[in-house]
């Protein structure tokens, strides 16, 4: 771990129940930070906080930059942007002391600012949507909000709050996406300015998946800037924007005491690198690292992504690393070393729609719980009671999810299975049977066919138990494995399990899910009725990685569990939106892991063959 850029957690997505419109990348820099250290300058780090259900939690953080009051952070925050949601963010700047943990002392806090990611409606009292807001407590529990586009346009609102700082109305938040670039003063506690400190946040909307590139750089014969040892070089790459401003794209690690450094390969999106413009200029700087933050300039060069792509087998792309001052003063000066692009790997990143539009079919299977705990279907209190005027919870969940899935299956035929009942002709308990009682063809025509098969099945079976779901999971996983062996993105499976209680065969179910996570399959479990489903949350994996009884983790998170009672008063669309929210990501994760491209004309995507 070097002193310029300490290890950070990978980019994290801010997820939510709504449909993701696009990705947004946020880049952060600061100026004129407070100097909290006695002997050196502050070592700043920016923490990105998000507000969920009224609580602030850390989403991600930048690297620590040593001894620097004007840091430009290389870390990129990646967030999902939801048009219909107000996504509240808070940037907090801290001075880090030795470790990567955040101090609790007031003097560790260098300032913060709150904002929203997207546009929000204006409130009636404010006429401009781009307001900054500062809280000032003038008396005990009385606050002034000072707002304005700038210092020349103040707007003050006075009101009383009981015991705590008032909540900022939505349109008073700084808005990032709407402005593309946000420059705001950092505030300490009680609304005090942190000197002349400012934070700048650049936002870029990524409208599509344009892939990423993996680059490997090295250098030879760099100038020696140190007196008693060799230079400690690192490389910075900046993108030149349309307005001629420069945006840091990547900063390499420091290679100690080496004039011929080989830097670690790194990955960067094409949006970040060149805004998907092959001719966009890139400014590359080579520095000799200094622990006090006063890095010595070695040289620079300009490149484009088109130039980089000239690399081929056995051939490398090179640039002279030039110090303009030396070039101007020294007649025979050639360069301060040579920087070499030794390898370039271009990766296309596919989206869920790429696979669907490329021909991937979604095969939908429903598995219904027919255990005795549901109650006698002839009794109006039963969860399986067929009310001619009101569908039961099983039917509501089935229709809500199934009607969406059927749009992705060309033949619109769906498997309908049952478990936990005694079935004819011998009335033996079965945990895997076709509800149309045709073991050779368990499929039904469209969702309406599944509904009819369910209603016709109820009088013919005896509800029994226990609640074993592993047999059906194993069955569908085996079916999906057959499609997975085809080695193309032609079919993906969704298994909807409707159950009224916690599964009895939990160990076998965990084992089955771990096995199924290697196949093109997603599992949705909807808990019907008022049972305590706490133990079912373990299958979801949201609170940790699901493991088999032997400790083997799932390859990918494929299970989504939702209690139906949470959506009793909501529309069917709300339930479907929730339970299907993870499916697009799961589809992409499976095919990406297998390095399988969409079924498309190879000419459209050169280098991608199935």
Automatic annotation (TrEMBL):
What domain of life? Eukaryota
Q: What Gene3D superfamilies does the entry give?
A: C2 domain, von Willebrand factor, type A domain
The record ties this protein, via SMART domains, to: C2, VWA
GO CC annotation terms, alphabetical:
plasma membrane
Q: Name one GO biological process term.
A: cellular response to calcium ion
Q: What is this protein called?
A: Copine VII
Q: Which SUPFAM superfamilies match?
A: C2 domain (Calcium/lipid-binding domain, CaLB), vWA-like
Name the protein family: Belongs to the copine family.
Ranges of residues in domain VWFA: 363-583
Which keywords describe this protein according to UniProt? Answer: Repeat
Against PROSITE patterns, the record matches this protein to: C2, VWFA
The organism named in the record is Dicentrarchus labrax
Q: Which gene encodes it?
A: cpne7
C2 domain boundaries: 1-130, 193-320
Against InterPro entries, the record matches this protein to:
C2_dom, C2_domain_sf, C2B_Copine, Copine, Copine_C, VWF_A, vWFA_dom_sf
What is a single molecular function from GO for this protein? calcium-dependent phospholipid binding
């Amino acid at each position: 771990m070097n002193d310029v850029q300490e290890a950070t957690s990978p980019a994290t997505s801010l997820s939510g129940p709504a449909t993701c419109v696009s990705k947004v990348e946020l880049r952060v820099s600061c100026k004129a930070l407070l100097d909290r250290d006695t002997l050196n300058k502050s070592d700043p780090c920016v923490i990105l906080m998000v507000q969920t259900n009224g609580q602030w939690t850390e989403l991600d953080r930048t690297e620590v930059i040593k001894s620097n009051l004007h840091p430009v952070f290389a870390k990129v925050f990646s967030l999902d942007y939801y048009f219909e949601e107000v996504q509240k963010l808070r940037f907090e700047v801290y001075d880090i002391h030795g470790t990567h943990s955040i101090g609790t002392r007031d003097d560790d806090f260098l300032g913060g600012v709150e904002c929203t990611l997207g546009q929000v409606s204006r409130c009636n009292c404010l006429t401009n949507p781009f307001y900054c807001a500062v809280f000032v407590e003038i008396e005990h529990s009385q606050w002034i909000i000072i707002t304005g586009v700038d210092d020349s346009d103040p707007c003050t609102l006075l009101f009383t709050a009981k015991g705590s700082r008032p909540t900022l109305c939505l349109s008073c938040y700084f808005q990032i996406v709407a402005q593309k670039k946000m420059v705001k003063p950092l505030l300490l506690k009680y609304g005090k300015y942190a000197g002349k400190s400012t934070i700048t946040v650049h936002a870029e909307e990524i409208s599509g998946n344009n892939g990423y590139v993996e680059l490997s750089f090295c250098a030879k014969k760099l100038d020696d800037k140190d007196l008693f040892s060799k230079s400690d070089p690192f490389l910075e790459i900046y993108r030149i924007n349309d307005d001629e401003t420069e945006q840091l794209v990547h900063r390499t690690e420091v290679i100690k005491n080496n004039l011929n450094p080989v830097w670690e390969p790194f990955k960067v999106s094409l949006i970040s690198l060149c805004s998907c413009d092959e001719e966009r200029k890139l400014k590359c700087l080579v520095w000799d690292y200094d622990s006090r933050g006063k890095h010595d300039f070695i040289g620079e060069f300009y490149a484009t992504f088109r130039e980089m792509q000239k690399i081929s087998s056995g051939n490398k792309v090179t640039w002279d690393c030039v110090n303009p001052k030396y070039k101007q003063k020294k007649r025979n000066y050639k360069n301060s070393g040579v920087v070499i692009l030794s390898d370039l790997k271009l990766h296309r990143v596919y989206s869920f729609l790429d696979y669907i539009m490329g021909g991937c079919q979604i095969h939908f299977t429903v598995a219904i719980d027919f255990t005795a705990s549901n109650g006698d279907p002839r009794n109006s209190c039963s969860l399986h009671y067929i009310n001619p005027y009101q569908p039961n919870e099983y039917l509501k969940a089935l229709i809500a999810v199934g009607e969406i899935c059927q749009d992705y299956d060309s033949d619109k035929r769906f498997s309908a299975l049952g478990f936990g009942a005694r079935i004819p002709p011998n009335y033996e308990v079965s945990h895997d049977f076709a509800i149309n009682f045709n073991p050779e063809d368990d499929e039904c025509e469209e969702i309406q066919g599944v509904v009819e098969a369910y209603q016709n099945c109820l009088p013919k079976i005896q509800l029994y138990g226990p609640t074993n779901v592993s047999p059906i999971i194993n069955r569908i996983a085996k079916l999906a494995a057959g499609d997975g062996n085809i080695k193309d993105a032609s079919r993906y499976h969704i298994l909807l399990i409707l159950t009224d209680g916690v599964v009895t065969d939990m160990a076998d179910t965990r084992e089955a899910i771990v096995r199924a996570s290697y196949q093109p399959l997603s599992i949705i479990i909807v808990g019907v009725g008022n049972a305590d489903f706490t133990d079912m949350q373990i299958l979801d994996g949201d609170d940790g990685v699901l493991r088999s009884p032997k400790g083997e983790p799932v390859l990918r998170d494929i299970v989504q569990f939702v209690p139906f009672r949470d959506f009793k008063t909501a529309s069917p669309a709300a339930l479907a939106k929730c339970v299907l929210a993870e499916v697009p990501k799961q589809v992409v994760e499976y095919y990406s892991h297998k390095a399988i491209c969409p079924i498309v004309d190879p000419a459209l995507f050169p280098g991608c063959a199935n």
